[in-house]
Amino acid sequence: MKAKKLFVVMIVLSFLFTACQTSNSPTDSPSGSAGDGVPAVCASDAFGCAVFKKGDVIKIGMGAPMTGGDASYGIDISQGGMIAIQDFGELNGFKFTLVAEDDGGTAEGGAAVANKFASDPAVVAVAGHIYSGATSAAMPVYEKAGIPLLSPSASLPALTTMGSQVFNRIVFTDARQGPPAAEYLFNKLGKRKLAALHDGSDYGKGLAEAVAARFAELGGEVVITEAITKGETDYTPVLSAVAAKGPDALYFGGYTAEGAVIVNQMKQTGLEDIVFFGCDGTYGADFLSRTGANGENAFATIAPIPAESPEKAAFDAAYLEQFGKEAGSLSPYTWNGYDATGALISAVKSVAVLGNDGNLYVPRGALVTAVRTLKDYKGVGGTYSCDATGECNTLPPMFVVVKDGAWVPAE
Amino acid sequence: MNVTSIQKLTRKGARISEILRPLLGAIIVIFLLYRLYDVFIVQQEYGPETWLRLAIAGLVIGSVYALIAIGYTLVYGILFMINFAHGEVMMLGAYSGFFVFEAFKAIKVSTDPLVTFSNAYPVLSVLIAFLVGMSVSALAGFSLERIAYRPLRKAPRLVPLIGAIGASIFLQNAAQLLFSPQLRDVTNPEILARGSGWGIMVNGSRVILPYTGVFTFFLSLILLAGLYLVVQKTRLGRSMRAVALDKKTASLMGIDVDRTISLTFLISGALAGAAGVMWGIHNGLVYYFVGFIPGIKAFTAAVLGGIGNLPGAMLGGLFLGLIESLGPAALGIDFQLKDVIAFVLLIIVLIFRPSGLLGERLAEEKL
Fold first, then answer.
1. Which residue of A lies nearest to B204 if distances are taken between CA atoms?
2. Which of 1.10.10.920, 3.40.1160.10, 3.40.50.2300, 3.40.50.2020 is the CATH number of A2-169+309-384?
3. Share of chain B above pLDDT 70, in %
4. Cβ–Cβ below 8 Å for B45 and A244
């Protein structure tokens, strides 16, 4: 029964998709209604069309933490996206642009940015948001407005299981990040007593719990699971309590701002000899500069750095030239930012229709479908195809460790 | 409804609260005793080394709270208003300290790139950082009073309070625009390196007394003692106490009320500035929002100790710091709940002892 339903849905979707495809071709007969230049697809589309007159700019939005303790993520990923705009951002004389708005990585900020984007008719798609908490707060707004999302970094598992039509991501889910981290701690590092800390966010908590569960399953002992208060500068009390349980490794689910403070204060609380194991939220140059010598031997999990290819080399060179830093030094997701923006642009190009009046029409509903049915998009990080829930990546994370003040792949 | 029935109702309400309060008190005490019994006797999760570590962290943060709380109490004692922008005054001090250390880090005194001014002359650079931080904050407190509070002196009491909240928001946003919203790391001189300190062996484990923590704690105590002497022994202190008692009579006795109020804001600003520089030295992170939470906590501490009461604010600060850091462990609850403990404590004190632990001395005398 269920399979049948799914089949019907797929047929309808593919029909929609092909309909848009054909109307896109320039040889197609004028499909506009009553000759005013508006293509027929706009009338039938559930969300209508975004209309661009000559000289208008097609906007790809991005909600990201651009300020505060985790700003390096937003800055880095949006810079990756800007290079994608330079590489692909032109369609029939219409230019694309990336609008990165600061959501501070918070739920409130995410909702505010989403409302701003939803009220701007020129925003057709959003490469984001960057943080899971901001994303889940923003999703309902985009759902109503018919704006598709393709997040480079929001890895909370629940985001794709809530039945959202608009949310997709090219990052791994934490269901694939947490358990391998536990296995690495248990098997590779030989740790048996784990302290699992998190910052109380959906993302951090989910991750720490997943790691703790897998670690216990493997036969290790989870000596303490504790939440810290986000945004503080003194975690010595909670670390002292952790030290009292005698763990031999500390897992932290959260972001650099708090992770760096924890690493700095571990040695004054009796945790100087144990391993700090972070996640994709505690990676980056900021972590290194803020922890200095204390950060030595800290682990993190990140999206795999793309294999060397001419495309990656071109991207890295462009990044270094324009922003003065090595690509990937600020966050692990700059390539994902490039790929997410690039994939969205290609989806827009696949559905956009040039009307007889010279205006460009982007049918929103068809674009939502086009992003969800993204197939074999080749980016620098790999080839992406989205499944029915919006997961577009199947690559597992990789492990990195700080050695001599730099992140290097852990063996 | 006539007067007698209202009186009856109030009397009835008073009787209900007379019964409820001890009942509530008993429930709270029984709950606390049960949790303490569970943690200390049954579970025995933490050894003495952990309690010592928690107490050290609590005393250090508590001494900073105490310094800020003094500012609330001084201003309340004299003007009967809560200066909610006080936390932002502390933030300006923290930024000043940060910039001074940055400047000294940039000055090279020898060919060795590692020998910076702040490492070559650590005492001098820390001293200058405190002087600059205290001056900036004192000036900020002073201008705040001149610009925002003095025009509202005759207005109803709620008006300057709202003015203070407005000033707080203004200062936060001004700092965000001026200094950017990024977190800044404070670079200490080597002798005050964060995380290092004297080690004591307790129960087979090395407990570290961090240099920055010890420095913060004793400097706070010295400043607090100095302030107490100023208020009790000097001419200025006498005029402050006189203005707190009765502004009109004080001015009739030849005391310049405006000048005394200005000086009060200068002093409380300077103490908040010192707290800000200490915060930077001990915790190492400075940003535009850094004064908000300590400000609220210090306000709590001032109310705990009895607002308007100087020793009360000092005691309230240290007490709050200790409760915050020992509380979650002692009650066996999540450490994320430490703010909850602090504010529940405030509510409990307000229910059972509305005038604070040591009493609202100055205000009582006013009434």
1. A270
2. 3.40.50.2300
3. 93
4. yes
